[in-house]
Write a structure and sequence with these properties.
The complex is a heterodimer of chains A (127) and B (182). Chain A has 127 residues and is of the alpha/beta class. Chain A has helices at residues 33-38, 40-48, 65-82, 99-112, and strands spanning 2-4, 12-16, 21-28, 53-63, 87-94, 115-120. In chain A, 37% of the residues lie in helices and 32% in strands.
């Protein structure tokens, strides 16, 4: 398991090949989204080099557009894995009545064509 | 005129007081510091929670505030002293976000052109434009092609107005207002 700890501007990310899951939880407004997301690819490759089936569990409190661009790039990378006879599912969590974040998930689903499960949830403790 | 007074005057010139008599939901002016951004967003969130607004409106306001602050920060990077103000008000089921910041005159035409181009998009096509530009941004390495500005138009359904005022030989003051109904 590899964990990238959260900061006040970036989410906590956990790559866990044992449970075949990637968890992204928190705020995502880094000063440089490119630099922040760069660090997740080596962890992703290390934990999931042998696996093309996993779940990406996402709760974002809010984000900036440069982060949505980099998150989209990461989801495309997951999509590439899925094409290797894999199965990738995204669980997109959002607060009750948060149509804004629900719609943000719908847009990512539309662009990536990955399977999204939309789950209404309470605010995680770490956010 | 002092630069902060100038911005405050610009932003609050047409404000409408809240029904409870408070002059505004939030007005912050000062020197721009990216490190303070998440604290500022927290402050905005706490004010919106007090108004008992829905989670969706709160998220939209946080996202829009982030874009506004980051746009100001982007332009502030070119200046030795960058002043910034953000003003949020909620009246009659409408939320208004205004910001003001200094922009180099040399950078003004590019920003003006981007805003003008986006404003030409029909309101019912703004989400389509946002999705298209987000999709295309993945392969771009030279910035986000105005994605933050498009986000402001898309999330407010086109209710964006902006202005450039001359302030000195080198600087313009840029104000932008984003309005949405809830």
């Amino acid at each position: 398991m590899i964990t990238i700890e959260s900061t006040e501007k970036t989410p906590r990310i956990i790559f866990d090949s044992a449970s075949k899951s990637i968890s992204i939880v928190g705020i995502c407004v880094p000063e440089s989204a490119l630099e922040f997301f760069k660090q997740i690819y080596p962890a992703f490759e290390k934990e999931f080099s042998q696996s093309s089936s996993f779940t990406i569990d996402i709760f974002l409190d809010y984000f900036n557009t440069s982060s949505s661009k980099e998150l989209l790039s990461f989801l495309f990378e997951a999509k590439r894995k899925e094409k290797q006879q894999g199965d990738v599912k995204v669980i997109w969590r959002y607060l009750p009545n948060d149509d804004e974040m629900y719609e943000a998930g719908e847009i990512l689903q539309e662009i990536t064509e990955l399977t999204f499960d939309f789950v209404e949830t309470e605010r995680p403790n770490e956010v | 005129m002092d630069v902060i007074n100038f911005i405050e005057r610009e932003l609050t010139a047409q404000r409408t007081p809240l029904a409870n008599g408070n002059p505004e939901l939030l007005l912050i002016t000062g020197q721009l510091d990216f490190k303070a951004m998440s604290h500022l967003i927290q402050l905005i969130e706490s004010r919106l929670i007090n108004l008992k607004l829905s989670a969706g409106i709160i998220s939209r306001t946080k996202i829009l505030s982030t874009e506004i602050i980051q746009n100001a920060f982007k332009h502030g990077q070119f200046l030795n002293n960058s002043f910034f103000a953000i003003y949020i008000d909620a009246v009659n089921q409408e939320l208004v976000l205004k910001s003001g910041n200094s922009v180099l005159k040399s950078k003004t035409p590019e920003l003006h052109q981007k805003l003008n181009d986006i404003s030409m998009c029909p309101k019912d096509k703004l989400q389509e434009l946002y999705v298209k530009m987000l999709r295309e941004s993945v392969n771009k390495t030279d910035g986000n092609a105005g994605l933050g500005l498009i986000s402001m138009y898309y999330r407010s359904k086109g209710l964006v107005t902006y202005n450039f005022s001359e302030f000195s030989d080198e600087l313009n003051y840029f104000t932008i207002q984003v309005l949405y109904k809830f």
